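B., you asked whether I could sanity-check this one before it goes into the benchmark set. Here's the sequence:
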Amino acid sequence: MKIGSSAPDFDQLTFARDARTGQLLNVTDIGNTVDVDRKTVKAWLSVLQASNIVRIVEPFWPNVDKRLTKTPKIFFMDTGLVCHLTRWITPEQLRNGAAAGHIFETFVVSEILKSFMNAGKSLRDVWFYRDQKKREIDLLIQEGHILHPVEVKMSATVGKDAVKNYSCLEGLTGYEIGFGHVVCQTPDPYLITKDVQAIPVWGI
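And here's what the prediction gave me:
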């Protein structure tokens, strides 16, 4: 498929991307799904990014050179569009379906990214964390040398187990761990630890 190829081909590619929102970006897998090459997938992704339909969140890595070799995540900026294109259109599907967690995370991350853009802040200060042991933190908000960890959970109540991976940040040379949050469906904010607060999704 070339850049000037038919709209149905692009619809296929868009569908493939929607089905993977909130997940690691695998260009080869997307190309195999819709039978196009990596170059074509990357070209269309650049169009989606320029149109602010998707945003790429890069992995945080203390070694700046190695950041470029790590796999990023992709997020659609409109969960309504995701649900329309993937036919996840009922409350039951969104609540109980296999992709429910990815849709919820996509909503939270997209709202945080939008708030950064509206405030004139750099999206380059928003990362996610994934180490060689596959321990993950959904978002890292960087303020200079301070890293604020953020987890996203669908549940209404979360405990200390939800933030166990925050300890992965300890000992990073040149960085400090700032106050963290867990975005969830709690009706009211509450402290999980003295340095981490659970906040309702409506409060982001």
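One thing to flag: Strands lie at 23-24, 54-57, 73-76, 126-130, 136-143, 146-152, 176-177, 180-184, 190-193, 196-200. Otherwise nothing jumped out at me.
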